[in-house]
Amino acid sequence: MQSQQYLQQRRKLAAAFLAFIFILAAVDTAEAGKKEKPEKKVKKSDCGEWQWSVCVPTSGDCGLGTREGTRTGAECKQTMKTQRCKIPCNWKKQFGAECKYQFQAWGECDLNTALKTRTGSLKRALHNADCQKTVTISKPCGKLTKPKPQAESKKKKKEGKKQEKMLD
């Protein structure tokens, strides 16, 4: 009797093992039957970097304007494009409209040249503009005479009038 039970257990174990093998084979063939998705192709563009011209104002020498960009490459779809831009009207245009400088205070007047100068260091350059690191500007000194202290003379006049009124 024990031998019959032993044989039945062995048959059940063999059937379970075969079922397990069958399931593994079925899963493997199902995965093999699926189409493999092609990996996303990384587009390698042989287009160069955009090179931008200076901003050209629409009217006057500051305000809204446009700039043109170009790039090179054999298979580039777009080699030229136009972009809107703006030139601030308060920037010192003698150093380039796309270069902004931080200026120091005006220096003392040079009596030989009758000019005073100050230097500015580059604060910001728009759109990769080619700007000088430091710039120097000068302007005429103006009058060299001392201004009259008007505030003090007015105060004295008022005080004098108050005293006159008090005496009267």
* Residues in helices, as a percent range: 25-40%
The helix-and-strand class reads: alpha+beta
Question: What is the general shape?
Answer: elongated
Average pLDDT, all residues = 77
What is the β-strand count? 7
Largest sheet: 4 strands, antiparallel
Alpha carbon gyration radius = 43 Å
How much of the polypeptide forms β-strand, as a percent range? 25-35%
What distance separates the N and C termini?
A: 148 Å
Number of continuous helical runs: 2
Q: Can you write the helix and strand succession as a string?
A: HEEEEEEEH
Low-confidence stretches are: none
Describe the model.
- The chain has 168 residues and is α+β, with helices and mostly antiparallel strands.
- The chain is built from two helices and seven strands, in the order αβββββββα.
- The protein has helices at 2-33, 150-167, and strands spanning 51-52, 56-57, 63-70, 80-87, 99-103, 115-125, 134-140.
- A hairpin with a 5-residue loop joins strand 2 (56-57) and strand 3 (63-70).
- It is elongated, with a radius of gyration of 43 Å.
- InterPro entries: Midkine_heparin-bd_GF (IPR000762), PTN/MK_C_dom (IPR020090), PTN/MK_C_dom_sf (IPR038130), PTN/MK_diS_sf (IPR020091), PTN/MK_N_dom (IPR020089), PTN/MK_N_dom_sf (IPR037122), PTN_MK_heparin-bd_GF_CS (IPR020092).
- Belongs to the pleiotrophin family.
- GO terms for molecular function: growth factor activity; heparin binding.
- Residues 34-95 form the Pleiotrophin/Midkine N-terminal domain.
